[in-house]
Amino acid sequence: MNIVVLTGAGISAESGVPTFRGADGLWEGYRVEEVATPEAFEADPLLVHTFYNMRRAKLLDGTIHPNPAHLALARLAESKEHELFLVTQNIDDLHERGGSPEVLHMHGELLKARCVDCGAVNPWREEMGRSSVCRACGHIDCLRPHVVWFGEMPIGLDEIGSAISRADLFVAIGTSGLVYPAAGFVSLARQAGVRTLELNLEATAGSNVFHESRRGRAGELVPLWVGELTGD
Ligand code: BJW
Q1: 49-59 confidence digits (pLDDT tens)
Q2: In whole angstroms, what is the distance from residue 32 CA to residue 29 CA?
Q3: Is 107 an active-site residue?
C-alpha cells in the first residue's frame, strides 16, 4: 500500500516538545502567529532569534527523545509491503532520531540556518543572532532560522501533492488542521479518492473530513495502527 503520513506537533508532545495551540502553547505571552512571521523578524530580530534559540537549546539539552510514535513510523518505513511518504510540519529532528530514513520537513528545520544574502542552508546547532557569520559567504547579520513562517511558501508542496494523488491511504497524526496548506491535504486526498485516517488526542477542525478518526495519545495510537498494517 502507498501511504502518506502527515505529522504535527502532537506527535512530539509526549517527547516534551510543547504544541503550538495547547495550554503550554504561549511563549512569554506571545502566540506563534506573532513571532513566526517575516514581519516579526524584521521588526524585532532579537526577539525572534531568542524564541528559536530557546527551542533549539531545549531540543538539544538531552531531555527530548523520540517516543513510540516516532519509532513506529520508522518501523513502517522498513516494511516491504508498504511504501511510506512521511511529511512533517515539525521543525524538530525526532523522526530522524527515531530512525525514519526520509522525512520531508515542509515547515523547515530548527537545526539549520538559512542565509538571506546567499541562500545557503547549513546545519546550525548553536545560538543564532545578528553577529552570527554565514559559513558560505562570510557575511554577518544575514542568518535566520531555516523555518517557514506565516505568509511564506512551505517546502516541497509539488512533491507532497503528487505523493497524495498516488496514495492509497493518507494519515494525519497530531495536527490541529488549522494551518494551511497542510490543513487542506485531507481534502486533496479525498478528491483523489484516497482513504483518510486521523490520529489525534482530540477532535480537530478537520475531523469530519476524514473517513475515520481515532482519539488517543500518538504514543499509543501510532504503534497500534502500524502493528495493524505490518502484522507485528
Ligand atoms: C496530540 C497529542 C498527543 C496534542 N497525541 N495528538 C487558506 C489557504 C491557504 C493559506 C492560508 C489560508 N488561510 C490562511 C492562510 C495562511 C497561513 C495559515 O494557514 N494561517 C492560519 C493560522 C489560518 N498559512 C501560511 O502562511 C503558510 N504559507 C502559505 O500559505 O503560503 C502560501 C500558499 C497558499 C496556498 C497554497 C500554498 C501556499 C505557511 C504556514 C507556516 C506555519 N509555520 C509554523 C511555524 C514554523 C516554525 C516553528 O515551529 O516555529 O508551523 S506555525 C505552527 O503551526 C508550526 C506548525 O507546523 C503549524 C501547525 O501546527 P500543528 O502541528 O497542527 O500544532 P497545533 O499545536 O496546532 O496542534 C497540535 C495537535 O496535536 C492538536 O490537534 C492536539 O489535539 C494534538 N495532540 N498532544 C496525539 N499526545
Answers
A1: 999 999 999 99
A2: 10
A3: yes
